[in-house]
Amino acid sequence: MDYKIRFGFASTAVFVAIAAVVGAMASTVVASRAYVTRGDLANRAEQIITVKGSTRKRIRSDQAVWYISVRGEHKELKETFAILDAGIRRVRAFLEEKGFAAGEIGMSAISMDEHHVHDKKGNATREISGYTLSRSFTVTTLDVDAVARAAGEVTQLIQEGVLVFSSPPSFYYSNLATLKVELMAAAAKDARLRADTIANETGCRVAEVRSAKMGVLQVTQPFSTEVSDWGTYDTSTIEKDVQAVVTVQFRIEAG
């Protein structure tokens, strides 16, 4: 009798242990399924779409800067200065004829270069063979058309014997900071339209913005496709195209 009772207790203990193990396994399976379900929901809730939006606008420069250099060359310093001075007076008269006001014309200091005689070995000696004097004009004006016209007519000074060197005018747009805000807003709107199109095709809808990154402005010649990671600013033309790009991340969810 005692033996049978001990055997019953042992069987009961084994049964209880097995039941506990099975229960723990079942709980683990349920918990795992719940975790996977929550993970799936989280993944569905955090689906992200990244799109680029862009816009382009034609602008007209409203400021110009133009550099003109005048030189005088001669064997004697006094004559060199006389040639330079005559050239300076002629260039100033030319600019005034083209309608530029005195306040729009700036002048640099005179610079001088000495030219030395070279020996048979090509080495410069102390003997001076001549001089070059030069002075620069800087024209800064809001009349961009006047600069464009005048720059094309400098050849008449050369024909008169003036030793003048004209740089291509540079044209700028002064309100670029305000324009950037406008273009970035338009580019962001374009990004949203692109995101909506993609999401609709996949049976989803666009939710909130998760991040947005503005690109640098590309200011180029009209119809140009030139781009740069650091931004492009072309100054050679009065008319310009300004392009803005924005990269936006949206959360999407089931429609």
Can you describe this structure?
By secondary structure, the protein is an alpha+beta fold. It has three domains: 1-45; 48-60 and 175-254, Translation Initiation Factor IF3; 63-172, Alpha-Beta Plaits. Helices cover 41% and strands 36% of the residues. A hairpin with a 5-residue loop joins strand 4 (111-118) and strand 5. The protein is elongated, with a radius of gyration of 39 Å.
Sum this structure up briefly.
The chain has 255 residues and is an alpha+beta fold. Helices cover 41% and strands 36% of the residues. It has helices at residues 2-45, 77-97, 144-151, 155-159, 176-201, and strands at residues 48-60, 63-74, 105-107, 111-118, 124-141, 164-166, 170-172, 204-214, 218-220, 232-233, 239-254.
Class computed from helices, strands and strand pairing = alpha+beta
Per CATH, which architecture of the largest domain? 2-Layer Sandwich
Give the N-terminus to C-terminus distance in angstroms. 72 Å
Count of alpha/pi helices: 5
Average per-residue pLDDT, rounded, comes to: 85
What name does the CATH topology of the largest domain carry? Alpha-Beta Plaits
List the helices and strands and how they pair.
Blueprint: H1 2-45, E1 48-60, E2 63-74, H2 77-97, E3 105-107, E4 111-118, E5 124-141, H3 144-151, H4 155-159, E6 164-166, E7 170-172, H5 176-201, E8 204-214, E9 218-220, E10 232-233, E11 239-254
Parallel strand pairs: 9-10
Antiparallel strand pairs: 1-11, 2-5, 2-6, 2-7, 3-5, 4-5, 8-11, 9-11
